[in-house]
Write a structure and sequence with these properties.
42% of the residues lie in helices and 13% in strands. The protein contains 63 helices and 40 strands.
């Protein structure tokens, strides 16, 4: 068996192809992965992928491409580093990181960056291939690497990655360089992103493409030049291009003849009045329109001109071509000024040469020096481009530049006619001739585009004796040919006759060198025109050179030539580096020929132009030193002054490039071996006389070069003499430096020039060091420097520039060789540190101090000698560490002035000082720390030092300390900080513990440690895997190291831990929330320690608990903490407290904190951006309740109230938002107590804040169309305004209240549906997991839409398709299950809903508001199913859900608190179905009567559905099922119910008959046949029921319509079925009137049996929209698809108080409107704790009556007596009341459910006498002056405390019929069925305000306050107070009130 062998060289490779790793121990690989190989065996490798080193496995060798690598730490922990170019390595790793992020860009839809990054990545890959091939030259490789790094930096910046420090394109290791150097590299990289400095040199690229014109036919010459219109002169030479007859360049193959570069343009040339001028000359006939003649003579003739401003090129796109318009002269004589006329827009002198004539030119401005352009635009220069120079020298003259160009401009001429009748056509020919008269070949250049020629012909102006040409030519004649050469101008007349000959008629000439040896002076010259003939012999130049050439040089007696009118004007300009036109310069250079002029020549040297001096720099210097050597005694001072002048001249920016020329001269050409003596002597004399002399700064500026000449002269002398006179030289130098030291030591009191001279000397002094080192040793030079710098005065004036210059001198000294040398550094370091310390203490020149310190510490890193470096570190630490810390504190905390200009400088200073501190701390070892701590003589000094350094460390950790992408610098900083803290913690323990304990010190230490751990750059979890790996390999996890140090220091505190409890709980908690397991394991036990010490001190740990809870909320809301932390916190602390005596209380605390974490984590997860509003709201409600009920944290409770409020507003849940804000409103009182500023509330009184809350809540109730609730608050606020006599606001509030009434009546409100939702499975959030809720749907939202919305909110959930209760497997499943079905609300306000005459707009509110209970019906068959008639076995399972709070509330959904399950028998079900259908019929008939219907179709369809179903056997099935003898015998207990069913069937027939009557009245004509059919079928129906005539009790009974008017037909009983009586229907309640609601059941859960039942009875064809109803499985069988109308609801017990004008109305107080859960006991609120009133859930039944409302249990249903009178003065029972007769009913007894009990009171019936139906008043009446709510939301617990919002039913004695009306049963003896309607009394949550305290006396505002001695004016009584005085008082013993429960009043 082969063994695995460790590999030696095969260590590193790249995956060539993907490997799935499907074999045993196989390692999956992806192409491009890098692997580290550990072992090898027969074609297989074993190793791991570098990005996941924990997963090891085997893979084939053939899949790996091996690469060379360097191995570090061989063995188990070996590391592999590729031995490839560092740029390649960086490219590879960076592209891998970019690849993942690039894909994320696509996911985030950032298309622009996605495509740009894709192109850059491809570009980098191409460059990488070029580098890997290795065929690039060295320069090309450098350029490629530079390009790669630039692209890498761009990508890193775009992707917000880290800035990479580089040196020469390679990444640097931070450990290999000094921190100061690292900072400088980072800063330089950062600065590159900023705007580059503008360049001062510019160049213009011109490329002529073509001339487009329709009338070409001749060759053209095009001239370009740059023209200054301000000075009216050209700035450049001309660029010359020849075009063929088609307007294209003649030499297309030679690009240099089409392109040029106008070079050396200054920044001042890029202005608007500088133009590019183009002149076009045609070559051809004299006249453009002449006929072609036989002569071949061609002339140069003007054609056109074009101009364009250079400023236009600055904004134009350089890639676009320019089409220049070409203009022509109106008059040829103006040709020389055509460009000026075009620029000045003198339109009368030029016009377009053609509408379609244009010059196509490419123009581009380039910036930078010419060498930079050659690198950047290599193609441009390689293909060829001509250089067009600037006229004269450029702004900067380069030493190697050789020019000798003479520019001649032919300005104009004056000629005579010469005997002709017309003017001449003059052409000038220009020649350059040498001394022998020979023509100089090729030295006449017209422009840069074409080579020079032998001659030049000007253009010809037709018939013009005064031509103006303004043509420029260049004569680049060499210097050696210049002497004796001259220029000749020949003038010819060009005939236009057939021969076309050119006749010579004169000439002019000008010599180039004058008689005195100077060249032709610059300027304009008027030349003499000498007459000659055509055959004149001009070749013999000696003949005419003796003649005068210029009229200015003519002798006075030559009047003939002076009077001549013929002249030629030319302008000459010489640009030469070898020839001069200055006579003084010539006199100096020829000093030996005229010794007597030496003194004058030396004096005049300072007046000569600098350009002339630098041109002859070497000759001038040779002259000066020659004079010095031969006549030192006479001219030493003057020569010295001239030398100083020349040296200072080179300081000018124009000539600074000549410094290397002087350096070269000194090294190679200087020969003054004896000059050093005179130079030293003169220099010393000047230094000694400096105090008496005035202004000698110019001498001190030249110190550097003077010393260079001294040193070089001495070296030459020593070389020539073998080192003679060495001692003399040493003595002279010491004397010189002594004088210098004395001069520098002089303090400037009133002599300002001394200070300036000292400053000038110090600026140039460091340049002397390198020269001195040529003759002296390093230590000797260092001694010179130390004495010189040490002689400087220490104190000076504040505005003296000497101090800054002193630092500049020291900074240059630091950069010099004498400081970099360790031998001399030890001599200079004390002086430097002394000066540095003084400046830093005074906070002056900090920028330079930082630079000096940076240089000082950078040298320490490069120093190899450990001992030397250690001594220097000691010196630096002793001198500047303390002041450095102080400086950082001063600079970092200094208030920075606004503006962007100063901030970068301050940032640079802070950063440099910080880098210096870090570098110094990195160099400090154990010995340095020991010595540092030993230097502190007192504890106070040590304390101050430690506080300073801890504070500075906190500053260094600030995010703004470094740019956000400086991760490398931050990691280095943190590594140094933690190392230093570990050293200093020992000093903290030794010196500030036990009896010397210092809280401030320890607090500073702990704060620093906490901030250190929590800084973002150390959170490795947020980094990529590769970045995290690099950091861990280099530094480890510094958070764990600091955490261990914190734990260790905490353990050392002992009893001093009390000082940090609870202050450090928050910071330590923040540390434990860091997602690092090791850190958590270390830090969490500290909380156990805190609990233990707090328990010892105070016997509990309330402080620990309070602080933990407070901080958890803020920290977790910031995104800290996770589920793992919650489990770890719980497990660690539970384990720690197992053996503690306080174990029980500890477990309680841990459990509380753990539960809070659960809710906070859920809340944070829900608040993420992607979550829906419903989930956010539910989670916020859950957390809000927890803070109030379990933690009693009022401030946090209020904060989350407002967060929930904001969520509701965002979701437009305005009603829920109002209820939410009521929670805070309930905590406030109407008092003047001042409240502090909190959240968005200003500082104000409690009354003002409560007023603001009321107004806001009212506004939201208005927006949510919950106007009834808004009315209650309007009243309460109006009462407050009335008590303060604020009638203006009172008026507004009353008007708002009135507007709410109008809106109730006028505006339509949609009734929402309700849905039961079950959340099953462990994957739901904590607040939903395995719980059931009822949700209030949105407007128009039906079951399918709601189910889809829930599935969208929980995309991973599975919808359950049944309504059965799930089993435990579902509860414990790791999944999400949703069970959703619709439920029907059971309104509490049955009295309002049952009252006749109340509009539907009012009833609709009470149907769907303040709902506690909901119902769901499920049909099923019990026993054997009868196939013929399934109604016999059709049962209904009815589930009633009770919520913890009523809907609507602070959320759209609330949890189900209790479920009640009852079974409804088939007979009861049949009763309910018929009751519902009867109620629906009544509603439709009423609506039709009152003209509420738009059309009669709904009534038609309903009648058709009922009659048709009855005819076809629907009711007959009921008869077959329940009226047969067998059923009656087998169910004797159902006798009453059978009778009730029979009554309902007769009642339905009566209603149908009346409905048909109404239908006949309103039916349209086209539906009359249908009506006739309905009537016929109705008779069949009566026949099927066996009805021939209605019984007497039915005929005598009026039909009660719920929406009839209570004020019509009170005392009359017309024939209901007669059409005449329709309008006078008596609206009172009949014994047959049992309205019920059966709405909103889930149609998805209907059974087949239900459908069959519907088929039997017949279904209505009306749509759901007509009635807004859903079918119910339990009620749709004998009705249509529609249940009761939304406007019709079930009856319920009502109040015994029936009159709205009773005199005992309560006050308008919210206290009187509490729900049954919280309302106090009073006359209208019986004691909820009374055992006689407590409901018994579904137990007691009413044997006297059948149940008619399917929404409530049977005992809750009572028969409502008919209204006998509507007189408001009638007492509660009136025996004399008259009304229509009520038919008798058969006796009926029975129990509706399986769990039955006899009612304690049997109710008798009376067909004639009845009690007036009690009712709940509207919100305008005082009995219900509150928001109707059973919910704690509205009672001060879960609600904001509108606890007065109670149910509308205010008394429970309703629903009974008494035989004599005068003997109405009292409330205490009412039927049990009354109280069963009430819910069980629920204990409110702990934070509930159970009831409102009695209203306190409201103090008047200060403005309304009255002096105590003055009686207050009487307040007018309120209306209800007047009424109350007339009423009979209630018996106090009848309604006992409980003791009010005190509540906490908010302090916020």
């Amino acid at each position: 068996m082969n063994m695995w062998i460790p590999t030696e060289h095969e260590k590193y490779g790249v995956v060539l192809a993907s490997f799935r790793g499907m074999i045993q121990h196989g390692l999956p690989l992806e192409i491009g992965d890098t692997v580290q190989i550990l072992e090898k065996c027969e074609g297989w490798y074993r190793g791991f992928v570098l990005k996941n080193p924990n997963a090891k496995g085997i893979f084939p060798c053939s899949y790996i491409h091996l690469k060379n690598a360097h191995i570090k730490n061989k063995g188990q922990f070996e590391m592999v580093v590729p031995t490839e170019d560092s740029v390649i390595t960086e490219m590879t790793s960076t592209l891998r990181d970019w690849g993942a992020m690039w894909k994320q860009l696509f996911v985030k839809n950032e298309g622009d960056l996605f495509h740009r990054l894709w192109h850059v990545m491809n570009e980098i890959l191409d460059l990488r291939r070029q580098v890997l091939v290795g065929h690039l030259t060295h320069d090309r490789m450098r350029d490629v690497k530079q390009h790669i790094t630039a692209r890498l930096d761009w990508g890193n910046e775009q992707l917000c990655l880290d800035l990479v420090p580089r040196r020469e394109f390679s990444m640097v290791d931070p450990d290999e360089i000094s921190v100061t150097e690292l900072y400088r590299l980072m800063e330089n990289r950062h600065r590159k992103k900023e705007t580059p400095t503008p360049v001062s040199t510019h160049h213009l690229f011109v490329h002529l493409k073509s001339l487009m014109s329709s009338n070409l036919g001749e060759e053209l010459e095009v001239f370009f030049f740059i023209y200054d219109s301000r000075e009216s002169k050209p700035l450049s030479e001309r660029f010359f291009v020849k075009l063929n007859k088609n307007g294209l360049p003649k030499c297309t193959e030679k690009t240099e003849r089409q392109c040029t570069l106008f070079v050396d343009l200054g920044s001042g040339d890029l202005r608007k009045d500088v133009y590019i001028v183009v002149h076009i000359i045609r070559i051809g006939r004299m006249g453009a329109g002449e006929k072609k003649n036989t002569c071949n003579v061609q002339y140069r003739r003007p054609y056109g001109c074009a101009v364009v401003s250079i400023a236009d090129l600055l904004t134009a796109d350089s890639k676009d071509d320019h089409l220049l318009k070409v203009y022509a002269c109106n008059t040829e004589s103006d040709w020389s000024q055509i460009h000026d006329n075009i620029i000045k827009k003198v339109n009368s002198r030029y016009n377009l040469s053609g509408s379609n004539t244009g010059l196509a030119v490419a123009l581009q401005l380039l910036h930078g020096d010419i060498e930079q352009l050659r690198r950047e635009y290599m193609v441009l220069f390689t293909r060829g481009v001509s250089i067009t120079k600037k006229l004269g020298f450029s702004d900067v003259i380069m030493p190697g530049e050789m020019r000798n160009d003479l520019y001649i401009t032919l300005e104009k001429g004056e000629f005579e006619k010469g005997g002709k009748s017309v003017a001449r056509n003059v052409e000038v020919t220009v020649y350059a001739l040498d001394a022998d008269g020979q023509i100089l070949k090729g030295f006449v250049a017209v422009g840069s585009g074409e080579p020079g020629g032998d001659e030049y012909h000007t253009f010809v102006l037709y018939h013009n004796n005064s031509p103006r040409w303004a043509e420029l030519i260049k004569l680049p004649i060499p210097v050696d040919m210049f002497h004796g050469s001259h220029i000749r101008f020949e003038f010819r007349h060009c005939s236009t006759k057939d021969k076309g000959e050119k006749k010579l008629f004169g000439f002019s000439f000008v010599p180039l060198i004058q008689d005195d040896g100077r060249t032709l002076s610059d300027g304009t010259h008027e030349l003499i025109v000498h007459k000659c003939e055509e055959n004149a012999n001009l070749q013999d130049c000696a003949r005419y050179l003796k003649l005068p050439f210029s009229k200015s040089n003519l002798p006075g007696n030559n009047q003939t030539l002076k009077g001549s009118k013929e002249s030629l004007w030319i302008t000459s300009f010489l640009c030469s580096t070898k020839l001069t036109q200055n006579g003084d310069m010539l006199d100096l250079l020829k000093w030996r020929a005229h010794p007597e002029r030496i003194s004058d020549s030396l004096s005049k040297l300072k007046e000569i132009d600098g350009s002339e001096i630098v041109k002859f720099l070497q000759d001038t210097l040779d002259t000066l030193f020659g004079i010095l050597n031969e006549s030192s005694q006479r001219y030493a001072l003057k020569v010295f002054d001239c030398l100083v002048h020349i040296i200072n001249l080179l300081q000018d920016s124009k000539f600074q490039h000549f410094k290397p020329v002087m350096d070269t001269y000194i090294e190679s050409h200087f020969a003054g071996a004896l000059s050093y003596r005179d130079l030293i002597k003169v220099l010393k004399w000047y230094v000694d006389c400096i105090i008496e002399a005035d202004h000698q700064e110019h001498i001190q500026q030249a110190t550097e070069y003077i010393f260079k000449y001294i040193i070089q002269s001495r070296r030459l002398f020593a070389l020539a003499t073998g080192g003679q006179n060495e001692e003399e030289f040493q003595c002279c130098m010491h004397e010189l430096f002594t004088s210098i030291s004395f001069f520098l030591s002089q303090e400037s009191k009133s002599l300002r020039p001394i200070t300036q001279t000292q400053a000038v000397f110090l600026q140039s002094f460091p340049a002397v060091y390198s020269e001195l080192l040529k003759l002296f040793t390093v230590r000797e030079v260092a001694t010179f420097v130390r004495e010189t710098l040490g002689s400087l005065p220490t104190a000076s004036q504040a505005d003296c520039p000497l101090q800054a210059v002193k630092l500049h001198c020291i900074a240059k000294t630091m950069d010099s060789q004498i400081y970099t040398n360790p031998e001399s550094r030890c001599i200079l370091l004390p002086v430097v540190l002394r000066v540095l310390q003084a400046h830093m203490q005074e906070q002056k020149d900090l920028v330079m101090c930082a630079h000096i310190l940076t240089c000082m510490l950078s040298l320490l890193k490069r120093e190899d000698t450990e001992s030397t470096a250690s001594e220097e570190v000691d010196l630096i630490v002793e001198s500047v560490l303390g002041v450095l810390l102080q400086t950082i504190l001063e600079v970092a905390n200094r208030p920075h002035p606004p503006g962007p200009t100063l901030r970068p400088q301050i940032q640079d200073v802070t950063g440099e000082f910080v880098s210096c501190l870090l570098a110094l701390l990195r160099h400090m070892k154990d010995r340095h720390y020991q010595q540092l701590l030993q230097r502190f003589t007192s504890k106070d000094d040590l304390r101050d030092f430690l506080l300073h350094i801890f504070t500075v460390f906190r500053i260094l950790i600030r995010p703004e300390m470094f740019p956000k992408d400086w991760t490398v610098m931050r990691l280095v900083t943190n590594n140094i900080i933690i190392t230093t803290v570990l050293y200093l913690s020992d000093a903290l323990r030794k010196n500030f513990l036990n009896d010397k304990f210092d809280y401030k010190m320890w607090d500073s230490y702990f704060c620093l440690s906490v901030i250190f751990i929590n800084q973002p750059c150390l959170q490795l979890e947020t980094f990529s895997a590769s970045k995290r790996k690099k950091i861990l390999e280099k530094y480890g996890d510094m958070r764990v190291m600091m955490g261990c140090e914190i734990f260790s220091m905490w353990q050392n505190l002992g009893e001093h831990k009390f000082n940090f409890i609870p202050a450090m709980i928050g910071p330590f908690l923040e540390v434990t929330l860091v997602p690092q397991p090791d850190l958590r394991n270390v830090m969490i036990p500290i909380f156990h320690d805190m609990m233990d010490w707090e328990q010892r001190r105070s016997g509990n740990f309330k402080q620990v608990e309070a602080k933990l809870i407070d901080k958890l909320d803020s920290l977790m809301s910031e995104g800290k903490g996770d589920e793992t932390y919650r489990e770890l916190f719980n497990s660690i602390l539970l384990k720690k407290i197992e053996r503690e005596t306080w174990r029980e209380s500890g477990i309680s605390l841990i459990a509380t904190v753990t539960r809070l974490m659960e809710r906070l984590l859920d809340y944070r997860d829900c608040m993420k951006m992607g979550e829906v509003d419903g989930k956010k709201i539910g989670c916020t409600v859950n957390l809000l309740n927890f803070y109030k009920t379990e933690l009693n944290k009022e401030e946090m409770y209020i904060r989350y109230i407002h967060k929930l409020y904001d969520l509701h507003l965002k979701a437009q849940n305005y009603t829920e938002a109002s209820y939410t804000l009521l929670l805070y409103d309930e905590l406030l009182e109407w008092s003047e107590r001042p409240l502090r500023e909190f959240l968005s509330y200003p500082m104000q009184s409690e009354w003002q804040r409560k007023e603001y809350l009321h107004l806001t809540i009212i506004q939201n109730f208005d927006r949510g169309k919950c106007w009834e609730n808004g009315i209650i608050l309007c009243r309460e606020l109006a009462n407050q305004y009335e008590s303060y006599y604020d009638y203006r606001n009172l008026s507004k509030m009353r008007m708002m209240e009135a507007s709410f009434y109008d809106k109730i009546m006028d505006q339509q409100r949609l009734e929402p549906e309700f849905f039961r939702v079950g959340f099953y499975g462990k994957n739901f959030p904590f607040f939903l997991r395995n719980k059931e809720f009822v949700c209030r749907g949105h407007d128009y939202e039906r079951l399918e839409a709601f189910q889809q919305r829930m599935l969208n909110e929980f995309p991973h959930a599975i919808a359950m398709q049944h309504a059965n209760q799930p089993d435990q497997t579902i509860y414990q499943a790791e999944a999400q299950y949703l069970q959703i079905y619709a439920v029907t609300p059971i309104p509490d306000s049955q009295d309002v809903l049952q009252r006749d005459g109340i509009p539907d707009n009012i009833k609709s509110f009470y149907k769907v508001n303040h709902i506690w209970r909901f119902r769901y019906d499920r049909p099923f068959h019990k026993g054997t199913k009868d196939k013929e008639n399934e109604f016999k076995s059709l049962w209904v399972e009815r589930t009633t859900l009770t919520l913890v709070q009523s809907l609507p509330g602070i959320s759209r959904w609330f949890e189900v608190e209790r479920k009640e399950l009852v079974e409804v028998s088939p007979l009861e079900n049949a009763i309910e179905v018929i009751e519902n259908k009867n109620l629906q019929l009544r509603t439709l008939i009423t609506q039709c009567q009152t003209r509420q219907m738009q059309n009669i179709n709904p009534l038609t369809m309903c009648l058709n559905g009922v009659i048709d179903a009855a005819v076809n056997g629907g009711l007959a099935r009921y008869q077959e099922a329940f009226f047969v003898k067998d059923y009656i015998m087998n169910h004797p207990e159902d006798g009453d119910k059978i009778g009730r069913l029979r009554e309902l069937m007769f009642e339905q027939a009566q209603i149908l008959e009346f409905g048909l009557t109404v239908h006949e009245k309103f039916v349209p004509q086209d539906m009359r046949p249908l009506h006739k059919k309905l009537v016929d079928q109705f008779h069949l129906m009566k026949s099927s029921l066996g009805i021939q005539e209605f019984p007497a009790f039915v005929r005598a009974s009026p039909i009660q319509f719920t929406n009839g008017s209570p004020r019509t037909g009170r005392n009359s009983a017309p024939n209901i079925l007669s059409p005449e009586g329709v309008a006078r229907v008596v609206a009172r309640r009949s014994p047959l009137s049992y309205p019920a609601v059966n709405r909103y059941s889930s149609s998805s859960l209907s059974s087949q049996a239900s459908n069959e039942v519907s088929n039997i009875t017949g279904q209505s064809e009306s749509s759901d929209e007509v009635f807004n109803m859903q079918p119910s499985p339990s009620t749709s069988s004998l009705s249509s698809n529609h249940s009761a109308s939304p406007n019709v609801t079930s009856s319920a017990p009502s109040s015994t108080r029936g009159s709205p004008q009773l005199s005992d109305k309560p006050k308008h107080s919210r206290e009187n409107c509490l729900s049954p859960r919280e309302r106090p006991c009073s006359a209208i609120y019986p004691n909820p704790q009374d055992s006689t009133q407590r409901p018994v859930p579904h137990s007691a039944g009413d044997a006297s009556l059948p149940r008619s409302d399917p929404n409530i249990s049977t005992p809750d249903k009572v028969v409502k007596p008919a209204v006998s009178s509507w007189s408001l003065d009638t007492p509660l029972s009136d025996s004399n009341g008259k009304g229509p007769p009520v038919p008798p009913r058969p006796p009926y007894t029975g129990s509706p459910t399986k769990t039955r009990s006899q009612s304690p009171v049997m109710i008798s019936r009376s067909p004639q006498k009845s009690v007036a139906p009690p009712f709940t008043p509207s919100p305008t009446e005082c009995q219900s002056a509150g928001l109707v709510s059973n919910s704690p939301v509205l009672s001060g617990s879960y609600s904001s405390g509108i606890s007065s919002l109670s149910r509308c039913s205010v008394s429970e004695a309703s629903g009974t019929e008494t035989t004599p009306a005068d003997h109405a049963l009292p409330n205490s003896t009412s039927s049990g069925s009354d109280e069963l309607f009430r819910r069980e009394n629920k204990t409110p949550p702990p934070y509930s305000i159970h009831e409102r305290n009695p209203r306190r006396q409201m103090p008047l505002p200060p403005s309304l306050s009255i002096h105590p001695n003055v009686d207050a004016p009487p307040i007018p009584p309120k209306p209800y107070q007047i009424r109350k005085q007339d009423t009979e008082p209630r018996r106090p013993d009848q309604f006992p009130r409980p003791r009010p429960i005190p509540r906490k009043v908010s302090q916020l």
